[in-house]
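Blackboard transcription, Thursday session:
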Amino acid sequence: MGQELESLVTLLKTTIEQCEQQVEDIQEQNHSAFEKYNQNLALLEDDYQNITQISPEGLAEVLSEVDLTEEDRETEFSFLRSIRRLLELNQTKQTTFQLSEKQKQILEDFKNQLRMIGEKNEAIVKENWKKASSLADRIKDLKYLLGILEDPKNKNYINQMDLILELLEQEDVSEEEARSILYGIMRYNQAIQKEINSLEEKPQERLNVEELKEIFASFRYDFLDLKEDLQEMLLNQGKMNQILEVFDALDTLRFPRLDLRRNGIKLVAILLKGDAATMQEIVELASSKGLYPKDLYQMIPAMISQKEDNRESKESLSIRGRSEDFKKNVAFLEEVGFLIPYIFRKCKELLVMPNAKLVSNYQKFIQYGFTMKTDMYGELMHPALSCLLSNNFDEVVDQFIEVSREGHQYIKENMSRATTITSPDDLVFYNIYASYLDHTATGDYIYPEGPFTSTNHRTLRLRGEITRYAGSGYENTSYRGITEENKHEKTMTVEMTYPNQEDFLYAVADAKGREEELEDLVEDDPRILELESYTDPSDPQRYDLEGVLISKLKVKRILNILKNYQLDQLEDSLLFALTYHSILSQEDLEKIKKIIQDRRK
Amino acid sequence: MDFLLEEGFDENLIKQLKQRYDSSTLDLFILERENVQDVIHYFQKIGIIPIEELLLSRIELFTKDINTIKDAFLKHNIKQVVELVNHDINNIDWL
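(Written on the board underneath:)
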């Protein structure tokens, strides 16, 4: 149940309480009106001497309701009071006063007056019972509605609109609150409809072409404009109710028409996987952030419910719902200062990617000291945003930091490499390593290059033959003959192995992507504090271990994982943290081992 | 992503794309298949060679509207841009 309906529940409970109070008041009123006079009459009918049981105030009260002049009322009251006194004396003092005929007549008149009042009150009482009865019905309806809303297993629509509208017309319900409640009811009914449809639909019943042509035509589309493979998908996987619901939602939410010959796949995807409630919710959110239905056509998965579509599909169109990620990503990206239309223009993929990955990559991005500077790029692309799509952001950035002195600056200026290179073991790093060793002699492996735009910024570029190999399918153009098979041999680097390697590697793989959840156990680790003295003066993010460059954040991250996995008692953990994925010559490795050993002394 | 095969790319490219990118990114790519094909054709027409590398490295480029891409190229000397991109795909960032 949404928040809007929670306020309806509160409203219902308050109203029920008020109605029950009204019924109680009516009952009380009836009791005093009806019972009192009938009781008095019954007493007198039984024996006129019982007038002594009616107090003088009681007599005055009866007379106040009789249609008499004030004078007559006073006179009658005096008579009745004196009769009452006489009879009271008879009862208490054993006197034997007899009532005169006149006094008896007065008593008879009084009885008639009581009867008249009783008759008159009877009409009021009847009216009151009607009111009470109507209130009781209303309470019953209100309670029924409340029951629906409070029952998580309910399968009934909310269709008591007269009752609800009456409730919303109360003075203390603002127009905004009323609108929100009505919107909540609409969504609630749509969810029920969906549930009923899913129960009613016969599994795998194939639609026929004529049915689809008719439906498409009723929404001003031509089914035959779809490519044949898409027509087949709809015929095989389409569900009549869902298709109608989505078409209706597209109309209601004012989506522009799609050219089916060109974008038929988008329509088919939403017809097969969409639902009106999710579409409406996403359209409302997107609109509030400056995106419109036509933009959402470019992010169809954002409009497909994620909750009910979280499995691998075996269908030929395996588009998965991303509505939840979309909502979370919009909130997160706004929180860190982005405008959503800007993200949409530059890298809309960020809006539908898994939220946990986006958050983790962004946090690492900040940790490594990168910025989202836009003046380095043109209007079309934004590599810094693109790198948030990375599957292995930190390990790739670590490798750039380590593989050459210019590597950190290079990755800052070419941030999309963090996405395009997926592994710290990618061949491009061996190419850079090989060229970097030569660089001291030739100095041309990396160079600043000016842009062809109006800005004057020059950025570092790697020679094309070094980077082009990076997983791009140029297998026949290997740089210096370096291949996947011979990369260690050609670059004279060591293939690292460690004692307890399996445990270490398992821990790192297991913790991947959720490092933020781990307890920080290395901040005050004496080994980390000691290593600070090796900070590279030209790059505070890096250790310079006698010429061997190591990423500080890598060492801290890996050591922290090992400590969290209680693997740090093993004496090789520091060596593992320092050299994890590093490209090292045997000489470099020995230098690191010696530094570790010297530390122990 | 079989439509890439129609454009002359091989299964290996599709495999690499699946390794490199999350399924959410690939879903958008698949849903924009007509646009992706238009971008590929445009790149071929103006002489960009490392299209496969661009697909692997800058997938988000191909889901941008073809007209936006054409406009971005037209603002510069296309021949010069193509040469620079052919030399190093990262030059696409200046567009």
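Lecturer's comment: Chain B is about 70% helix and 0% strand.
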